[in-house]
Specification:
Layout lengths: L1 H23 L7 E2 L6 H5 L2 H8 L8 E6 L9 E6 L5 E6 L2 H14 L4 E5 L8 H4 L4 H10 L3 E2 L10 H9 L6 E3 L3 E3 L16 E2 L1 E6 L2 E9 L15 E3 L2 H7 L1 H6 L4 E7 L13 H4 L7 H7 L4 H4 L2 E4 L6 E5 L2 E5 L6 E10 L2 E11 L4 E2 L7 H5 L11 E2 L2 E2 L2 E2 L6 H19 L1 E5 L12 H15 L4 E2 L2 E2 L5 E5 L10 E4 H7 L5 E7 L1 H10 L8 E3 L3 E6 L8 E6 L10 E6 L3 H6 L6 E7 H12 L4 H4 L6 E4 L6
Parallel strand pairs: 1-10, 2-5, 5-6, 6-7, 7-9, 11-13, 13-14, 14-16, 26-32, 30-34
Antiparallel strand pairs: 2-17, 3-4, 8-12, 10-11, 15-16, 17-18, 19-20, 21-22, 23-27, 24-25, 26-29, 28-32, 28-33, 30-31
Helix pairs in contact: 6-14, 15-19
């Protein structure tokens, strides 16, 4: 009897354990029904105007899909110089979330309310306005803009999982987060944070957009494992894109979706001079083309997906790749991608359109404004004529229809204005930043950073700040070059958007090469060295490893066996990938603040900030470089 009782108690304990485990590993819902979601146009238009437009809809009217990607916190408009010819140029204002609201409102009227606004991630990290609110200003703006769904980009993880949980848990957030690829690494299948029971959060979702059922799934690049701060992605794994393409469309179809769309935070690069139907030629395969490789390897993708809204590669795209329509913008809130989907006899057909740039003005001879679009126009216009009010699909753009987003953003802008506008220094000429080649801008900034570290009079373990030999930044730490003229703190935030601190480590010469090679997850990723050092590497067309040598290019007074090296928070993870076990010390010193402080006081003493220095990267274009 005792034996049978013990067996029964053991059975109960196992049953309870299984029940608890099952509860804690709750799987996130696939193909959730977004019936509680107000549509984009219902959000932007008055109820009366929306009903009037909906009453004019015909069954043959297309579904209009517009999207953004890689906003990186850029809520404000920007000024560009549009050069038409040697004798004609225009100063043009482009972008800003208020202008996006006015363009979306006009697009809703043109589409008679049958419009869907989506976003492909990397939305929050990148400007002082967004970073100072940990992305909250953008989350609130997205809700006001009528965004229907977004997915996670790799830089969403820069704020840490607690902040992601905060975004998910907000009842005031009106858009959905969908992720079909972010998993808990302890089992490889259950989405983390599902225990929150957060509103509007699922693997995928189905909306009814003015009578058309649309299924949306999400993908986060699996390179997030090497493109985010390591401590922020602990216990998380990422499905491959081919798995998502293969598995996520069918559940949406079973839930009644007539149109299936994948939000893919993985994109490619295409020749915009070539038409959409020539996508397989316009969008050539490369090491960085994660999306193109996956589509070409998946023969049934064209029958499963009607549209992919891409991001991550910051390259405009409106091309059919392996039979699948793909659209993407260059990001930073300057434009929105645009497609029209018609349904005939239960078959959806996607018509890709050129990106819509958010212009403050158009011209008599051209309904555009941005230099990027001008560069790939097939037929150049001799003169643009006079400026005129911008329009979209026959609807004039009314800038006053951006007031709801303005009301959200203005308090944040006002609180930051004095800091953002504060001048650090000025540059007599531009210093460019090329992520695949030379970067005089990086030479200046990494030298300024090292200068600040050396004079900080700090000690970390056995290291003294004045004895640091070299500093390295990864190429992606900079998002643009340094323009001529005034450099403000606001502009420095845009150039160096990430909140990294300096980490100090001791490395041998061979460990430096291993460390540099560990950064080569794509052609854009390599190390930028401080003065007196250079990285020799093969051209980006060559396969990895590309780094040949990390070396001193100035004479040392004595030979050294180990170097004291400054690296960023982000780069720290590559020590582990390179199997380097040296002790690493976090200085706690902000890289951006260190650079700004040095430029403010000592720019004249930083040679590379006064004369462009292109010696830090030595490109070998043939052979093995040995």
């Amino acid at each position: 009897m005792l034996k049978s009782t013990s067996a029964f108690l053991l059975f109960l304990s196992l049953l309870c354990a299984c029940t608890v485990k099952k509860k804690s590993e709750k799987s996130l819902l696939r193909a959730a029904l977004g019936t509680d979601s107000q549509g984009t146009c219902e959000r932007l238009l008055s109820p009366t105007e929306y009903r009037n437009l909906a009453s004019q809809l015909l069954p043959t009217d297309p579904l209009v899909v517009v999207s953004t990607n890689d906003l990186h916190g850029h809520a404000d408009e920007r000024i560009f110089n549009l050069k038409v010819s040697e004798t004609e140029s225009h100063s043009v204002i482009v972008g800003g979330l208020e202008r996006l609201e006015s363009y979306l409102t006009a697009a809703c009227r043109s589409a008679k309310g049958r419009l869907l606004y989506l976003d492909a991630g990397d939305s929050y990290q990148g400007t002082a306005l967004s970073n100072s609110t940990s992305g909250q200003a953008i989350v609130d703006s997205f809700s006001a803009l009528g965004l229907m769904a977004s997915t996670f980009g790799n830089h969403e993880f820069d704020f840490g999982q607690d902040k992601i949980k905060s975004w998910l848990s907000q009842p005031t957030r009106t858009f959905w987060y969908v992720t079909s690829s972010v998993n808990s690494s302890n089992d490889g299948k259950n989405v983390p944070w599902s225990e929150l029971n957060a509103p509007r959060f699922s693997r995928s979702v189905v909306f009814n957009i003015a009578g058309i059922k649309v299924g949306i799934a999400g993908y986060t690049t699996d390179s997030t494992a090497v493109k985010s701060i390591p401590d922020n992605i602990k216990d998380i794994s990422f499905n491959r894109l081919d798995e998502v393409l293969l598995n996520e469309a069918e559940p949406l179809r079973k839930q009644g979706a007539e149109v299936t769309i994948l939000l893919s935070h993985a994109g490619g690069a295409c020749d915009m001079k070539m038409p959409a139907e020539h996508g397989d030629k316009a969008c050539k395969e490369s090491d960085a083309d994660e999306l193109g490789r996956a589509l070409r390897a998946h023969p049934n993708a064209a029958s499963q997906w009607n549209l992919i809204v891409a991001g991550h590669s910051h390259s405009p795209q409106r091309h059919i790749v392996a039979g699948v329509p793909v659209m993407q913008t260059s990001g930073l809130g300057l434009s929105m991608a645009h497609a029209r989907i018609k349904i005939h006899k239960n078959t959806a057909t996607t018509d890709l359109q050129d990106p819509v740039y958010l212009c403050d003005q158009h011209f008599d001879q051209w309904n555009g404004c941005h230099p990027e679009e001008w560069a790939w126009k097939s037929e150049k216009i001799q003169s643009l004529g006079k400026p005129k009010k911008p329009s979209l699909l026959g609807q004039f753009i009314n800038k006053d229809e951006g007031n709801e987003v303005k009301a959200i953003l203005e308090p944040h802008r006002n609180s930051l204005k004095s800091f953002m506008d504060k001048n650090i220094t000025s540059f007599s000429s531009e210093l460019k930043h090329e992520r695949t080649s030379q970067s005089p801008a990086a030479a200046c900034l990494v030298d300024a950073w090292l200068s600040h570290l050396r004079i900080s009079d700090e000690k970390w373990g056995e290291f003294s700040s004045k004895n640091i030999d070299v500093a390295f930044l990864n190429a992606g730490a900079l998002r643009s070059g340094i323009s001529s003229g005034s450099l403000t703190w606001g502009r420095l935030f845009e150039i160096i958007p990430y909140d990294n601190t300096a980490h100090i480590v001791s490395l041998t010469s061979s460990e430096l090469i291993s460390f540099a090679r560990a950064h080569e997850s794509s052609p854009h990723d390599y190390l930028l060295a401080s003065e007196g050092w250079a990285v020799r590497r093969q051209a980006n067309s060559n396969p990895s490893p590309r780094t040949i040598e990390v070396k001193r290019i100035s004479t040392l007074p004595i030979a050294k066996q180990k170097w004291t090296v400054a690296i960023s928070t982000f780069s720290k993870s590559f020590l582990e990938r390179a199997k380097i076990e040296s002790q690493v010390y976090d200085s706690g010193l902000s890289i951006r603040a260190s650079i700004g402080s040095t430029l403010e006081r000592f720019k004249k003493n930083i040679n590379s900030c006064n004369t462009a220095d292109s010696s830090r990267m030595q490109i070998v274009t043939s052979g093995n470089g040995e």
